[in-house]
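Async update (no meeting this week)

Hi team, since we skipped the sync, here's where things stand on the single-chain job. The sequence we agreed to prioritize is pasted below, unchanged from the tracker. I ran it this morning and attached the output directly underneath so nobody has to dig for it. Comments welcome in thread, and please keep replies under the output.
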Amino acid sequence: MPSIEFTNLSKTFSNGFCALKEINFSVQKEEFLALVGPSGCGKTTLLRILAGLETPTAGSISVDGISINDQEPKDRNIGMVFQNYALFPHLSTFENMAFGLKSQKISKDEIKQRVFRSAQRLELSELLERKPHQLSGGQKQRVALGRLLSKNPKIHLLDEPLSNLDAHLRNSMRRELKKLHKEHKSTTLFVTHDQVEAMTLGHRICVMRKGRIEQIGTPQEIYQSPSNQFVAQFFGSPPINLIKGNLSSAENNEVNFTGDGFAFKIPAHLVPTKAGEVVLGIRAEDIMLPSESESSSSFLAEAEIMSVDDLGDSKVIYLRQDNLEISMKSSAEFKIPKNKIKFVPNWGKIHWFDAEGGHRLKKG
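Output:
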């Protein structure tokens, strides 16, 4: 399977909109790379340029060290699954799945074998004679994937293929995609705005915003060490708590953090050496209930309980201090107090960001 290299890739449309700005990164052989970011950040444009459906304004793309900028789409050995499936309405399931093979001058017998094999894999064998209007959304999605698998190109491009499915189908198709990649080992770029899809499918995640790359890393790296405040906010449910404030020296090798109505005493080795405003980031699962031995600790904080989401296996508690609301997670068995709750952050897992630029600050 091939590797892909994007070098100084930019794209500006005729209306002046700059969709991509000097993109530089590589996709490894057999890698499943998830591209995530808000609408309009350039994810789909990047895929379309790689597929040959759009022309870059500047920069180049190489596959296994060979530039493909001047290659026609049909010569790139790349398959793409679109968000709206892009099935031919007048063709049957079999004909849609065989379409890409007929242009390759493959024999009828081999086309049948490939289509039947893919149809069996995707549980479409009973639907081969049906037209798209006779299929459900999940079935159409499988036909689009079947067309890709029947052709079996070197590179798979998936542009939000699960976004039109209900929650149950999304979960099952996500598992199916994982199995298919494990079997075919095709180099894959998967565009999504769904953080769960990115985390569960991507070997690495590329986070984009406004045509630029914010961070590339494994799901663990992206979640535990976000490069900036934008990346930190994009991943996590509920979103990370962000508290803007100032640091000042305290006694006993501690530092005071005060901001937005909250006041914490934090071990000195866990705060950044920066003057001025900073942003403290704490994820909901890293806000904990104090043990009995910590009930009088100087590291405790207290806030008013606003509401509780009971998720069955856990609870999300929304707290407020002055005008700032934060969230914390607790076990399903936790009995919620009436008005206020004491808590202690897991100081080893907090994040610090520059208040002005939003970039990550190192501790210590």
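Quick observations from my side:
Residues 241-354 form one domain.
The mean pLDDT is 90.
Reply here if anything looks off.
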